[in-house]
């Protein structure tokens, strides 16, 4: 059978796998808000605690726990209550078999029809989107989606020891990459996206008043224009991969 040419109109479960607390909120919180409003259950999986981030004098041993709490508050702002952390070290991610297994485990636990993650491709025109951790998580998540999570013989301990059956993800949405073929109009949930981002006090409190919203609306307006939305609309954009 040919693969679909457009994303499913509705899915029951989505898993978002990102490298750091706040990654999902900068790129996708508006989209997530539209999903939860439509009744989709959304789970967040953060691979690191973001312990290498921040712009103030917060002691390093406190930054990880602080950012976990910020991410939980941000998730609540867009209707997400299931937030998981894998506890890998911030800034030192590599596409290891252990990481693939740990992401595969969460996929088999959540059993999502759709997975959202970061693009594994470098975005030369916007290098800030291509943090090595972002690219590593995108590549590792794609490897977990295909073939690991759907293959009952990959990481057999997940089935033998944890009772986690194989699961096939139908769609992967990639954000922050050099290409996009699908846009989500998030104009009407901008306030929820901003509330989520402002929950990350350790990451955004250094921005001058109004600058964060100006930055966000500027690039989301560009996304909307590039994908043919009417003037004045705001959009988050993704590359949608159908995995069969």
UniProtKB/TrEMBL annotation:
Gene3D superfamilies: LmbE-like (3.40.50.10320). SUPFAM superfamilies: LmbE-like. The keyword Zinc applies. GO terms for molecular function: hydrolase activity, acting on carbon-nitrogen (but not peptide) bonds, in linear amides. Keywords: Zinc. GO terms for biological process: glycoside metabolic process. The keyword Zinc applies. Pfam families: PIG-L (PF02585). This is GlcNAc-PI de-N-acetylase.
């Amino acid at each position: 059978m040919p693969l679909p040419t457009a994303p499913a109109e509705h899915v029951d479960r989505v898993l978002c796998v990102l490298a750091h607390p706040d990654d999902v909120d900068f790129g996708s919180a508006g989209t997530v808000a539209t999903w939860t409003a439509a009744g989709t259950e959304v789970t967040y999986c953060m691979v690191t605690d973001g312990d290498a981030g921040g712009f103030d004098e917060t002691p390093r041993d406190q930054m990880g726990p602080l950012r976990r709490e910020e991410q939980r508050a941000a998730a609540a702002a867009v209707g997400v209550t299931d937030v998981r952390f894998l506890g890998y070290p911030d800034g030192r991610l590599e596409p290891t078999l252990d990481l693939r297994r740990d992401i595969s485990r969460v996929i088999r636990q959540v059993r999502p029809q759709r997975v959202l993650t970061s693009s594994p491709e470098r975005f030369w025109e916007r290098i800030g989107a291509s943090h090595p951790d972002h690219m590593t998580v995108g590549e590792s998540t794609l490897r977990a989606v295909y073939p690991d999570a759907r293959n009952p013989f990959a990481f057999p301990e997940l089935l033998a020891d944890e009772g986690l059956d194989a699961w096939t993800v139908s769609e992967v949405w990639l954000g922050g990459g050099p290409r996009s073929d699908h846009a989500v109009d998030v104009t009407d949930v901008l306030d929820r996206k901003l509330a989520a981002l402002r929950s990350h006090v350790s990451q955004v409190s250094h921005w001058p008043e109004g600058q964060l919203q100006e930055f966000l609306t500027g690039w989301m307006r560009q996304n909307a224009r590039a994908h043919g939305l009417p003037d004045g609309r705001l959009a988050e954009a993704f590359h949608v991969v159908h995995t069969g």
